[in-house]
Amino acid sequence: MPEETLTITDNRTSKTYTVPLFKGCIRTMDLRQIKVNDDDFGVMGYDPAFMNTASCQSAITFIDGDKGILRYRGYPIEQLAEQCTYLEVAYLILNGELPTESQLKDFVKEVTYHTMVHENVKKFMDGFHYDAHPMGMLMSTMAALATFYPEARKIGDPASRRLQILRLLGKMPTIAAYAYRHSLGLPYVDPNNSLSYTENFMSMLWKMPAEPVYKPNPVLARALDVLFILHADHEQNCSTNAMRSVGSSQADPFASTAAAIGALWGPLHGGANEQVLVMLDEIGKMENIPAFIADVKAGKGKLMGFGHRVYKNYDPRAKIIKRTAEEVFQVTGRNPKLDIAMELEKIALSDEYFIKRKLYPNVDFYSGIIYQALGFTPDIFTVLFAIGRNVGWLAQWQELLGDKEQKIARPRQIYTGYDQRDVVPLNKRGK
Ligand code: SDX
After folding, report:
1. Helix (H, G, I), strand (E, B), or coil: what is residue 419?
2. pTM of the prediction?
3. What is the rounded distance in angstroms from the CA atom of residue 321 to the CA atom of residue 316?
4. Where do runs of H (alpha helix) occur along 214-271?
5. Residue 199 and residue 374: Cα distance in Å, rounded?
6. Which of 49, 146, 177, 342 lies 20 to 30 angstroms, CA to CA, from 419?
7. Which of 225, 252, 364, 379 is the catalytic position?
8. What angle do CA 16, 18, 19 make, to 5 degrees?
């Protein structure tokens, strides 16, 4: 077996260097020895948007983009979505193993215990404008929680880390529901600890004060739970990178989670699910699809919910979501937008433009259609993505803090600005 090294010849100096391969990668710090003279900084890697850069080692999620494989801690997403609940998967992602019955019971109890928020959080949320975007409300309120739990800054204390993780898992659905209720001018509904994680979220969203009891539909509650599972983690996506980058400065987990929510909000990332519905509404009807596709191919916009940095095959989550949609429509009635979405997919997948670029439906293409059928308005879709991804961000943050190789994230740059120049006095500028 040939030695796991690369031999690099610097043609500027004719020197050769042997660089070890580490798990199929080179450590770019090993390039710094390649210099033309002693004053030379040495060779750096240049990789805008990290197209080909591993920022960490992680044991949480495995994706094979070519084969459309997604596993959490080694378990295929299809089996987890079929056989587990979201909190069961959250336990797996955080702890590395599926829980026993008693471990799951204790974990559910601990998360449930942390679903309430301080009354002042409600006052804080009351301050938002009536039409504030729920993602803006979620991001700022999660950051505000850092001021309620100053001990969260003890990120080196495992017991404190675990307590904050339980608080974040318990409180995010509550804050998300309060953001939704605020936008409708409805009173907040306190958590009901007799309900499951997802049923409790639905109760805080939809229980009406005049109605004594709220009974979530079990089929819809299960569908939402599956959607949370599908969104739980996805290795080093943009928002997880934000969580790790902010967490690497030893900021508290509430501030790091707020940063991750901000990254997720972007339309190229988690914000795509909301934009898919905007796109389907713009298309309106089947006969408009060919013209829309022609516009996309002419560079006049993107087919939202299509394409992925890693998946160059069908996103396995999209397949499960499509199946789950049918179960939801048995209860809610069919969302006509599904027909447009499926026709759009059919046309796109047979068009050379999309085939050549390996553009397939991703997790966001169908999720919005289910969310809408479940009764959500598009502006809260990405909040639902955040609730699912919350545990992934926290597990990745926890893994970062336990990784001896990790330090504060501080990339280098290639400077392209002016060389030194002198300040011209104000009264002489522009003359
Ligand atoms: C998520 O990273 C993750 O894991 C993310 C996620 C997770 O779980 O965390 O999976 C969740 O964010 C899913 C992605 C949701 N975003 C969208 O659906 C928005 C639409 N998709 C694109 O913007 C795009 O596909 C990205 C952002 C998802 C990926 O972009 P890349 O990898 O940077 O690829 P690119 O933009 O360089 O595109 C390569 C080519 C370009 O064409 P050319 O310049 O080569 O001619 O494909 C084209 C792009 O124009 N292209 C699209 C397209 N996506 C890429 N053309 C039309 N429609 C699209 N959707």
Report:
1. coil
2. 0.95
3. 9
4. 218-230, 238-247, 253-264
5. 13
6. 49
7. 364
8. 130
Mutate which of 235, 292, 304, 306 for ligand 1? The one with the most ligand atoms within 8 Å of its CB, which is: 306
Cβ contacts of 217 within 8 Å, gap of 6 or more? 331
- Token pair, residue 272, equals 């795509």
Domains contained in the chain, CATH given = 1-46 (no CATH), 60-388 (1.10.580.10)
**Distance (Å, whole) CA 86 – CA 226:** 7
Q: Which residues contact 342 (CB under 8 A, 6 or more apart)?
A: none
Establish whether residue 306 lines the binding site of ligand 1, counting it when its CB lies within 6 angstroms of any ligand atom: yes
For the stretch 368-423, pLDDT in tens is 999 999 999 999 999 999 999 999 999 999 999 999 999 999 999 999 999 999 99
- Ligand 1 centroid, distance to 308 Cα (angstroms): 5
Q: What is the DSSP string of 317-337?
A: HHHHHHHHHHHHHHHH---TH
Nearest residue to 398 via CA among 146, 52, 91: 91
Q: Classify 5 as helix, strand or coil.
A: strand
